[in-house]
Amino acid sequence: MAKRETARAGTKGSKQSQVTPTSQPELEGKLSAEQDAGERTHERLVFVPWVDIYETETGLVVVADLPGVSPAGLEVTLEKRVLSIYGRVEEDTPEGRSQAYCEYEVGDFERQFTLSGDFDINGIEANMKDGVLHLAIPRAPEAAAKRIEVRSVS
């Protein structure tokens, strides 16, 4: 199945998104993510969510727009300084009806960031309201200074 991703298009402040299909020949020869190489392939559309990142005195605040994603369909991980956000959207076509017209396509959301510095993975707080994810990522405490005793060797 062809993979599609959205890319931001236009000038600053523009709310446009562009859907670009990726053809099958481009996917040939790529290894799955489970084999530790290349990018992950998807069965559905995958969109790049709009994200704002703020740096505070105590760490980072990440705000991501994930319309249609429920807290149960959200996976956020921080591993080896890579913050990954993946949100699955469930289609909500009413039972017994078929779609006759569609102005937008339903898909999942995925985004990754490499963070500089060390962060406290146990102190991360995540909240979601109305399709907007708020992450508070505190910096890891600096190691306390320690005096090292030097012994004389005879």
Q: Concise description?
A:
Helix content is 3%, strand content 42%.
Query: How would you sum up the major sheet?
Result: 4 strands, mixed
**Based on helices, strands and strand pairing, what is the structural class?**
mainly beta
Radius of gyration: 21 Å
Number of domains: 1
For the terminal residues, how far apart are their CA atoms? 72 Å
How many β strands by DSSP?
Answer: 10
> Strand order across the biggest sheet?
3-8-7-6
Contiguous helical run count: 1
Low-confidence parts lasting 5 or more residues at pLDDT below 50? 1-35
Mean pLDDT: 77
Instruction: State the helical fraction.
Output: under 10%
Report the top-level CATH class. Answer: Mainly Beta
What name does CATH use for the topology?
Immunoglobulin-like
Describe this structure in words.
- It is a single chain.
- The chain is mostly beta strands and 154 residues long.
- The chain has a single domain (3-92, 103-138), classed as Immunoglobulin-like, CATH 2.60.40.790.
- Helices cover 3% and strands 42% of the residues.
- The protein has one helix and ten strands, in the order E-E-H-E-E-E-E-E-E-E-E.
- The chain has one helix spanning 24-27; strands spanning 3-8, 17-22, 46-47, 51-55, 59-65, 69-79, 82-89, 108-114, 125-129, 132-138.
- The strands form three sheets. Strands 3-8-7-6 form a four-stranded mixed beta sheet, with no helix packed on it. A four-stranded antiparallel beta sheet has the order 4-5-10-9, with no helix packed on it. Strands 1-2 form a two-stranded antiparallel ribbon.
- A hairpin with a 2-residue loop joins strand 9 and strand 10 (132-138).
- The protein is elongated, with a radius of gyration of 21 Å.
- The termini are far apart.
- The model is unreliable at 1-35 (pLDDT under 50).
